[in-house]
Design goal:
Oligomer: single chain
């Protein structure tokens, strides 16, 4: 991964910071406002938020995997939020 210029740690880090920043935006999932049945709305939100947390974890772990060419110390410098922190913010942990 690290040899792909599109996946330079600076690019990935910026994308992850943008993702984290948008998690606190109430308009992140405006489509949910169209759902009128509270249980359906809550179930859909839970599934989406769980999927986002899981995906963040997969990306984070891939960045820390030495076989992908990134240095763990540099990853931790570039990616400030752990999967646990993201899942806590999402309310799925």
């Amino acid at each position: 991964m690290a040899t792909d210029s599109n996946l330079a740690l600076s690019n990935v880090g910026e994308a992850m910071r943008t993702f984290f920043g948008r998690l606190s935006d109430p308009a992140i999932l405006p489509e949910f406002e169209k759902l009128r049945v509270p249980r359906v709305k809550a179930d859909a939100a839970t599934k989406v938020l769980t999927a986002l947390g899981t995906t963040y974890s997969i990306i984070y772990e891939a960045l820390l995997d030495p076989s992908n060419g990134y240095k763990a110390a540099e990853v931790k410098q570039a990616i400030k939020h752990t999967p646990s922190q993201v899942k806590t913010l999402l309310g799925v942990e």
